[in-house]
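Example is below:
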Amino acid sequence: MATRKTSPDDLLGPVTLAVGQEDLLLDRAVQEVVAAARAADADTDVRDLAPDQLQPGALVELTSPSLFAERKVLIVRNAQDLSAEAVKDVKAYFGDPVEDISLVLLHAGGAKGKGLLDAARKAGAREVACPKTTKPAERLTFVRQEFRALGRSATPEACQALVDSIGSDLRELASAVTQLTSDVDGTIDEAVVGRYYTGRAEASSFNVADRAVEGRAAEALEALRWSLSTGVAPVLITSALAQGVRAIGKLSSARGGRPADLARELGMPPWKIDRVRQQMRGWTPDGVALALRAVAEADAGVKGGGDDPEYALEKAVVAVARAARMRRGD
């Protein structure tokens, strides 16, 4: 085939192959090519095509010389779903691409349509990986890269807090990074993320628990007050505290082993095993028992057994943080 091997940096190469199922990354791969084409020619003609729009012969027509010699970007989405006849046309085009036309193929990867995928790679297409992010660690890496791409600095704790608050949607994570870098000067830390995003009840309550089991009483109390001020139900906070302390108790009494093995044994995801391992430094069996009693008393207090649920929570948070520091004796 005549298509030359295209450099990853050559956005205007004849063929770009975006492979994967992460919509945000696929859209970005398209946007990069379109932006480069319009930078070279503001009048670039962009055609965005679904598989059923690329009927046999359509690609030949779309790539035929124009009277105006305009630059074109042809985007074919879900290329794995193209008909056999359309695939033949695309493969033939690989052998004789047209100058000033950028063909962008979005392919899900996998077995379906693999012949087209292999042919594009053999032809030297520029390839962009767009894998679905399924692991928390991958989302954390994505957030770090987003901050870096915008030329900004964010602490590891801030990145983790953002992932914990937003969840698995890369579009929302990217949007949150953009908002923070637009609104905040200097290094973005965990407190900044908290002000923007811990209004989400689950994330906010677990933020309180994380700080408490790490022995960071002042930060835990600050997170508690923020959670209560944003309307988080006290019962969610006692539940998060209980889960945090129980996780430390389970892991401290478990047999050693790889995170994956412990995850199966304890019913936790591997990423949580790593986090709890970091949090359990300083804990003793007596400390776990004391903390669980304090949380149980707080739970009874917020469910009607006391006159001041906020005080009951503050007392529990301080008790858990102190229990976390028993081994260190400070």
User: Anything to note?
Assistant: Residues 18 and 259 are 33 Å apart (CA to CA). The radius of gyration is 27 Å. DSSP finds 15 helices and five strands in the chain.
